Amino acid sequence: MSHADLARRFYEDVMVGGDLGALDEILTADFVDHEEGPPGTPDGIEGVRFFVTTFREAFPDLQVSMDDVIESGDRVVVRATMHGTQTGDLMGVPASGNRVELEMIDIVRVQDGRVAEHWGTTDNLSLMQQIGAIPQEAAAS
Fold first, then answer.
1. Cβ count near 101 (within 10 Å)
2. Do the beta carbons of residue 43 and residue 73 sit within 8 Å?
3. How far is CA 23 from CA 11, 12, 14, 136, in A?
4. Dihedral pair phi/psi, residue 76, rounded to 5°
5. Are strands 75-85 and 99-111 parallel, antiparallel or unpaired?
6. Which of 44, 52, 98, 103 sits most deeply, having the most CB atoms within 10 A of its CB?
7. Can you give the C-alpha Rg of the chain in angstroms?
8. Nearest Cα to 118, choosing from 53, 23, 17, 40?
9. How many Cβ atoms from other residues are within 10 Å of residue 23's Cβ?
10. What predicted TM-score, i.e. pTM, was given to this entire model?
């Protein structure tokens, strides 16, 4: 399985499909996530489970597109876009009913066919604006 296929499996099976059991096959036992999550996010695989569960509860119609994929050595870089409708709470923000588009860049290091490390950037400001947690005017000032 290529590194891109491993990333695709995470987005399609786990994020979109909700198969949290697949994380044990996709991630190493000592997986490290260098992207800081919301307060209270556990480390390692449990942190990924927390993130996926949180997003899927807030956006049950979540879809992810892999817009660009670059593989080099033991790394894969993915520029992806998530789409979904916020019908559940997200980190204390009540369901807005708003359809959102969230862009992100993920970099993963693969070791022995599994993801060992993750670095990422997500446009969280835009997400909070789209669900009405931060007014558009506040971000402009």
1. 13
2. no
3. 11, 12, 7, 36
4. -135, 135
5. antiparallel
6. 52
7. 15
8. 23
9. 19
10. 0.89
Pairwise CA distance, residues 13 & 20, whole Å: 8
> Closest Cα to residue 119, out of 103, 104, 140?
104
Give the DSSP letter string of the chain.
--HHHHHHHIIIIIIIT--GGGHHHHEEEEEEE-S--STTPPSHHHHHHHHHHHHHHH-TT-EEEEEEEEEETTEEEEEEEEEEE--S-BTTBPP---EEEEEEEEEEEEETTEEEEEEEEE-HHHHHHHTTSS-HHHHH-
- Cα–Cα dist 117/137, whole Å: 36
Domain residue spans in the chain?
3-140
pLDDT (tens, 9 = 90+) of the chain, 141 residues, equals: 799 999 999 999 999 999 999 999 999 999 999 998 877 889 999 999 999 999 999 999 999 999 999 999 999 999 999 999 999 999 899 999 999 999 999 999 999 999 999 999 999 999 999 999 998 875 555
CA–CA gap between residue 47 and residue 38 (Å, rounded) = 10
The CATH number of the structural domain formed by 3-140 is 3.10.450.50
